[in-house]
Amino acid sequence: MNEPSSLTSRVTDLLCEALQIDPPPAEMDLIAAGLLDSIGFMHLFAAMETEFGIGVTAADLSPDRFRSVERIAAFVSAKQEQAGPQAESAETAVLTDPRTGRERRRVAVSGVREVAAAVAECRAAAAGWAAHTPRERARRLLRLADLVEERSAEYVAAEQAGTGKPAAEAAGEVEQCADLLRFYAGALRTGRSPAPGGLLPGRESWVRWEPLGVVGVIVPWNYPLMMAAWRIGPALAAGNTVVLKPALTTPDTALLLARDAAAALGPGVLLTVPGDRDTGRLLVESDVDAVAFTGSETGGRDVVARAGLRRVSLELGGNCPAVVLPDAPPDTCQGLVAAATYNAGQSCASPARVITLRENYEQTVEGLAKAMAERRAGVDFGPLNNADQAARYDRIVARSAARVEHVAPLAPPPGEEDGHWRPGRILADLPADDPAVREEVFAPVLTVQAADDHAEAVALANGVPQALAASVWGARADEVLDLAGQLDAGEVWINCHLEQTAELPHGGRGASGHGTDMSVLALTEYQRPKTVTARVGRS
After folding, report:
1. Which of 49, 169, 297, 315 is catalytic?
2. Which residues, in sequence order, are bridge partners of residue 529?
3. Cβ–Cβ under 8 Å, residues 159 and 170
4. Active-site option among 177, 320, 333, 348
5. Is 496 a known active-site residue?
6. Among candidate residues 379, 370, 376, the one with its CA nearest the CA of residue 333
7. What is the pLDDT of residues 280-291, one digit of tens each?
8. Distance of alpha carbon 179 from alpha carbon 185, whole angstroms
9. 273 Cβ neighbours under 8 A, 6+ residues apart
């Protein structure tokens, strides 16, 4: 074990290297001095993991622990004592920059102890958070939204580090996160209970909506911040505390949320446990009252098996169809390609399967090919998130039997040629059971199929297990509305795709899961009703 003076010296050296600063006095308030902002915290935590073999967990995320060199040294010493001789071998994960493929940081993987500590802290805070009036919870959520907005540059940088998104996409998603928090700050005050009344003779009845308690939230790497906001917004507004488990490759903005939530909402209301699939499984099996999971169908099935009788909300894969009629608007192909390449196609609601009638099949393939040729990975959209996802793209494309293939150019920035860049693709003249049709590529790929009539188009659209979202493109209101009604999907767009707002619900069916994200309807995902009936007057 290091002597305190030696440890303080090591912490000082580590701070100087991680933050690129001159040695500060041991007692200086680093936060007040502006030396430790959110990005500084990220660099500090990564350096501590490398230097001391310890990780900062959800239970540790109190700014006071890191205000000065002396406090950081005391924190490190306590962590080492807690872990004993195994401290130096704490499990860490190497994270890479998807734009370059090179290591960008290391993060401690939360295990049994860290998950249990986070859940226990949220459990301890649950009664206090639920006891706040709707007005007070709303006020605190608005403050969290303000912090996200005030520190948007930090959030954008953190989101880009993990996902490689273009700055404009990341900035838009940070803005949506703040907007969603503000939406739920207002929604929680509206009241949705059935009106009380004399429903039984001599009785008055009403319904109370009560929080579930502690909610475990697991979100994927494609929209780390936005998917977190979709889940934590209604869960927190409904009066629950939340343990958030981000994807292993993208913990950055979740850690910022935990930091800012501690200041805005109070300690233990929202905590983050970075980690891998095993961390997620530990969270599902822990003492949480409900689980909200966004991810793959395989992951969703695993969550259901482990959650038992507890409440589960699932948003899973999409593989979404887009039905294009002969009288579709002139900008249809451009709109579909823009939606299919947004976030490099890594969206469950992105269009994936274009279905036309035979009379407009060739025209649509040609239009999509032309539009895709103008969208370049590296200029117009970012890379795939990780090596596994890039390998999935390569595998499905290689197995496809498409006889027509249009591949867009690649244009990675200088020095980023080794990133997970994959070009946009149009695959046509392919069988109905082609891997690119049956499997969700989750990349900038569009397949094109032809149908003899509307009935066959609907059959093809509904011919995969997923049923999350879809779109219909055409000029006649009677036709497009009829087709929209026949499509098996939780969300259908007409002459547009992938356009969403906090006021509108989003959720799937079948293999796409169940439950609701966004809108006031999502509040009931995280509440339970209690009917109260009182005898009044004389019997």
Report:
1. 315
2. 209
3. yes
4. 348
5. no
6. 370
7. 999 999 999 999
8. 10
9. 57, 58, 110, 114, 115, 118, 243, 244, 245, 279, 283
